[in-house]
Design goal:
heterodimer, A: 290 residues, mainly alpha, B: 251 residues, alpha/beta, Rossmann fold, 2 domains, 9 strands, ATP binding (chain B), ABC_transporter-like_CS (chain B), ATP-binding (chain B)
Chain lengths: 290, 251
């Protein structure tokens, strides 16, 4: 039996007696003080967004009266095109969404693994850092063209393009997360003489979760733009491909309608990530800066 | 059973040209509460790190429970624990989850660890706060969780590294008395590192004053009879303050 096993036995055999005075009275008022409050910023943000949208719609309407339809259609025409596309082409929205989700999920998983390796395995760090830095220096357009040469299958092309573009964001941010580990906490957990796996499980992984959320929120908009580009270059289905078709048939109303869907998609995905983040990071005190 | 749980013999430790510990020798016996006092920079934390095995001496030897704490780092798993100057709680874990951390690292099953952690939170007078996150606890409550985490693994030796120094006077005094009662009741061997003379006078069986670089400037034994005698306490206070270079603090 190891020392640790011996300790486990002795720990279980000696329960301490309970104290006479509970601290309930101390805790309850404190809990009341830290009850989460609604952030008034949210309502103001929503109002400002609504104002901007209304101003844009008015500007569109006014412009559409003075220029031809193929330059700027009226909001009503765009709305009609959006309704038509939504009912006629939902398949393309679904395809784009699946491509995006799959690529972000895989980029996240691989990026986290690479970031962890960079942060924790000293000998491998310079090699991975070099690979990631070279990757970040290659323009997205180069990757798109390379993918067209390398892969026949459109799905593989798009997946590859998104992966190589998104992966460095996760790897670098997770690496920064590991580097930002407070030394105090490392010393604390080391005082229990844990295994490497236990340090990873109890300290490093929970610590990098906010970094993963931050990266995801940062890359969603970028990832949507990239998937549209990739579809435009490398596929016949998906929103990007349909925008290409709309452009070649001079249907600017459809281009704007697809753009409208992309903005909505971005907002929905951001809201979804925010909701998951709020639940996952409920341990974090929300600071409101005056 | 080894009687001298900690043996430091002729230890010297330097960092580059800076000599932190100079030929230090000391012994801590089983069940003893020893307080290491010294000014800031006296090398108290270096001594703690040497005993914990997180650093190794340039010369001399350190033995803890018969092991070299640096070379046999894992052999002392579960036998030592530390409560630090700051609480060092993991913010993503609740009070009870923090208290059970050491037990989980030792391989205690999850339900058992949870039960033991709850018992220890009650023992340090924090029952009712089990499910609070760190940001929902006051400074004193956090330090109590930190103590529960250190004690829950039932270590042979408990180190307190300035654990009460960042708390206000009243909270610090209450926590100090609670810890003293628990340590005495369970017969724990404790090494307290502090710059507060009050901590030593109230808790120590033996107070060791370190000069800079760390070597013993004064060693005094303090028993209950001395503690009950205000004149003796005042005399000890003055002796320790003088050995610390007249810069006593925390009274």
């Amino acid at each position: 039996m190891s020392v640790a096993d011996n300790m486990a036995v002795s720990v279980n055999s000696n329960p301490p007696p309970r104290a006479a005075a509970p601290a309930d009275q101390l805790v309850k008022p404190l809990a009341a003080v830290v009850r989460p409050q609604r952030n008034p910023e949210n309502r103001r943000d929503l109002f400002a967004t609504a104002v901007v949208v209304i101003v844009m719609l008015i500007a569109m309407e006014i412009t559409s009266r003075y220029v031809p339809d193929y330059i700027m259609p009226s909001p009503v025409t765009v709305w009609a095109a959006a309704r038509e596309l939504f009912f006629a082409d939902p398949y393309h929205v679904g395809v784009t969404l699946i491509r995006l989700t799959a690529a972000v999920a895989v980029a996240m998983s691989l990026g986290v693994l690479i970031g962890l390796a960079m942060g924790t395995v000293r000998w491998i760090r310079p090699y991975l850092k070099a690979i990631i830095l070279i990757d970040t220096g290659i323009p997205a357009l180069s990757w798109m063209l390379i993918a067209v040469f390398w892969f026949k299958n459109p799905e593989t092309r798009i997946f590859f393009i998104l992966l190589v573009i998104l992966l460095p964001f996760y790897a670098l941010n997770v690496y920064e997360g590991v580097r930002a580990l407070p030394k105090d906490l490392v010393d604390m957990i080391e005082s229990f003489r844990p295994s490497r796996w236990q340090v990873l499980r109890y300290l490093i992984l929970p610590h990098i979760v906010p970094y993963i959320f931050l990266t995801t929120k940062s890359v969603i908009g970028y990832a949507i733009r990239m998937v549209i580009f990739a579809e435009l270059v490398a596929s016949a289905v998906g929103i990007g491909a349909r925008m290409n078709l709309a452009q070649s048939t001079f249907r600017i109303d459809q281009v704007l309608a697809w753009t409208f869907f992309l903005v909505i998609l971005n907002l929905v995905l951001q809201a979804a990530v925010n909701a998951v983040e709020k639940v996952t990071l409920r341990w974090r005190a929300e600071a409101v800066v005056r | 059973m080894i009687d001298n749980l900690i043996e430091v013999k002729g230890v010297t430790k330097s960092f580059g040209s800076y000599l932190a510990v100079d030929n230090l020798s000391m012994v801590v016996r089983r069940g003893e509460i020893v307080v290491l006092l010294g000014q800031t920079g006296a090398g108290k934390s270096t001594v703690l790190n040497l005993i914990m095995g997180t650093t190794s001496p340039n010369s001399g030897s350190v033995r803890v429970a018969g092991f070299d704490p640096h070379d046999s780092f894992k052999a002392l798993k579960g036998r030592l624990s530390v409560s630090f100057q700051t609480d060092r709680l993991l913010p993503w874990r609740t009070a009870v989850e923090n208290a059970e951390l050491g037990l989980l690292i030792l391989g205690v099953s999850k339900p058992d660890a949870r039960r033991r952690a709850k018992e220890w939170l009650a023992r340090v007078r924090l029952d009712g706060a089990d499910d609070k996150y760190v940001h929902e606890l006051s400074g004193g409550m956090r330090q109590r969780v930190s103590l529960a985490r250190a004690l829950a693994i039932d270590p042979e030796i408990v180190f307190l590294d300035e654990s009460f120094s960042q708390l206000d006077h009243v909270t610090s005094g209450t926590l100090r008395r609670d810890f003293y009662q628990i340590a005495r009741e369970l017969g724990k061997t404790c090494v307290l590192i502090t710059h507060r003379i009050d901590d030593a006078l109230e808790m120590a069986d033996r107070a060791i004053v370190l000069s800079q670089p760390a070597k013993i400037a004064l060693e005094v034994h303090i028993d209950d009879a001395a503690r009950a005698d205000p004149a003796r306490i005042a005399e000890l206070h003055a002796q320790i303050a003088a050995a610390m270079g007249g810069e006593e603090s925390g009274s």
